[in-house]
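hiii so my PI (J.) wants the whole complex modelled not just the main chain, which honestly fair. so below is everything: two entries, each one labled with what it is. i double checked the lines twice but i was tired so who knows lol
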Amino acid sequence: MSKRILSLFRNLFRKRAIEQALDDELLSSLEALTQEKMKQGLSQSVARREALMEIGGIEQVKEEVRAVGAGRSVERLARDCRYGLRQLRRNPGFAAVAVFTLALGIGANTAIFSVVNGVLISQLPFRNADRIVSVFEDMPDFAQGSISYPVFLDWQRDNRSFESMAAYRWANGTITGAGQPENVRARCVSPAFFPILGVNPILGRNFNAGDDRRGADPTVLISEGLWQRKFGRDADVIGKRLVVGGTGRTIVGVIPASFQLKMWNFRTSDLYVPIGEEHDARFFKRDAHWGTDAIARLKPGVTVDQARKDMARVNAALAAAYPDDNKGLKSTILTLKQGIVGEMRPVLLVEAGRNKRWQVCATSSVRPRPAAATGSPLRGSTVPAQFAHRAPAGLTARTAVES
Amino acid sequence: MGQKRTDLLRGTLDLLVLKALSVEPLHGVGISRRIAQITKGAFQVSFGSLFPALHRMEERGWVEAEWRSSDNNRRAKYYRLTSAGRAQLKAEERQWNEVVKIMTTAVLSS
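here's the output for the full assembly
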């Protein structure tokens, strides 16, 4: 093998020396044959002609020898490239269509790959994001529905698979009493919500269990953006009061602007309030589904499948305990990524696949047409015959653009 | 030229060239003549096949080439079997005998 590689380099870079040696060898052979024939009594000219005939043409033999040399394929490739360039120069219209078709194919591919890479391949920007799951309550007639808050609390208490669980839902974001009234995006979250995502307040603290119960002093977390806009990044904002939805709340922390998340009913917001502090008693009824969703972080070593089995056990117990409200209770567990990508995953994969195919189509279509079709005789024996053979008749640049 | 055109079986040429070189180093024309001799004139190897074969075998390390003066004091490229070439000759002989055995059995079967 190494010998073969060596001769490849020799053939490529010492081409002239090789050719010279071949010339010498053939000439000496011709000489030897001529001598032989002269010994048989032929005149020198006749002997030489016969010798030439026996060798079968110096150039032909040389061509045959070159054909076996290592590096032949590299040479052929280079020649094919030169041939291709020549063809393109001769036919600028075809060249333009070819370049356009390739550009389109490559461009579409790149665009789709960027999306696939961003959405399907790269990790979400959260600590051990693959350990974070979304949990839904399935009713017999409503899969992946919102969770009744008492059921969430039971799950939180009874499961053995999650380090922690957090619920979240929409909240009223009307701010009054601090300059112009305004309506911003707001969400209710459990104290565990930001810890599960690995998000720490840049100022102040997160919610704790004390904030997250009925009758607690109302508290609020604000976004870095709101902190900047309403409070001019005042470090003394912690402890200040903000009236949200008619309720006076104490600001306890600032969530960094780097936190960005969009999933199910969640959107990055300007205000976050504790979910368990809800004063409306109906929220705590077992048959109330107030648009609450949940996330959870798997315990180390626990797989999503194990968590599903564990939750099935918890749900069976709840269904037995509360047959009126929780008969047939089930839950769906998806990884955070599945939750975010959701139903777009198969669509994206198909799209990516289709673009691969399109690109293959685009590249394969951009080949010189068979000689017969162009009407131009292919020049000399150096024109690679396979060009003509491989291009299916009729598949010209035009069909590529239409496909 | 009056030469009998015999289509060499694929792979036979290598064996014949190796065999021709097994006694002593020869130049191209010499190899052609030696092959004609050992096949009792049945095979006339064309130079268009012989030289490519020699170059291929040289790249594979089966033969080595060297410029020497020939009998009539002319320079010629002489080919010599290497030890790898000898091993290859043995292998190809064994293989050939097997093929012959198999084909004979096949042809004689009723």
